[in-house]
Amino acid sequence: MTATEMRQSEGVQEPTPVLSFEDVVLTFAGVTALNGVSFTVDPGELFAVIGPNGAGKTSIFNVLSGVYRPQRGTVRFGDQDLIGRRPHAIARLGIARTFQNIELFSNLTVIDNLMLGRHHHHPYGVLAAFAWLGKARRNELANRNAVEEIVDFLELAQWRRLPVGLLPYGVQKRVELGRALASEPKLLLLDEPVAGMNLEETEDMARFILDIRDELGLPIVMVEHDMGLVMDLADRIMVMDFGRPIRTGTPNEVATDPEVVRAYLGEEHQVERS
Q1: 58: Cβ–Cβ under 8 A, 6 or more apart, which residues?
Q2: Which of 50, 83, 155, 226 has its CA 20 to 30 A from that of 34?
Q3: Class level of CATH domain 17-94+185-274
Q4: Which residues form the ABC transporter domain (predicted)?
Q5: What is the C-alpha separation between 152 and 150, in angstroms, rounded?
């Protein structure tokens, strides 16, 4: 019996999902990228999406971000319908995303890159910003204080004034994570957060991801190929294969499912988990 089934049998009310992704179908010129994909994300949950290359993981993120518009299905963030909204409008609702490939301004400092994540929190015009008086000044100082808190949270203080292009790869990935946090999101989308990292960098990033979930209480949807990381961090996992979900459950339920083992994990992993 799963944790959800146990709560239902005990009469415990299920939490209202932060995100509902229901029966989504996405096609491109006859190629089906997503075929009836459904899942929910609960408050404070770390929900992972795994699967081979081409399984549809990034397509899910692009639907959530407003980059793609599906032909069928519903996507709701709280009480807001996301389908048809532009990416900037979705970001304003409180969904922030990191990318597999680093998307930073290499010539800007860590602080400046983090400040870019605060652009939704600048309720004044260009002239006010140049004058730096009154409301603009107070708002700028508040935004800088918010960024300094992220610097401390992600342990970036020693690099705060350096151009990010001079930093180690793992630190750059951490800066990108910080820029997403700077927008004060209500839901965080992590696209392969440890891709290309060495073991030490991976362990550092795993610690920060757990801190975001546990200390900030921020729900997370994570796409990742590092199965050790996924099994250690995720509350629930959805396994994708050829655009359709084949299993959703706890790490142990997923790792011991015969169809998942055949499609993705491999027999050796099943033996290790048994």
Answers
A1: 100, 191, 223
A2: 226
A3: alpha beta
A4: 19-267
A5: 5
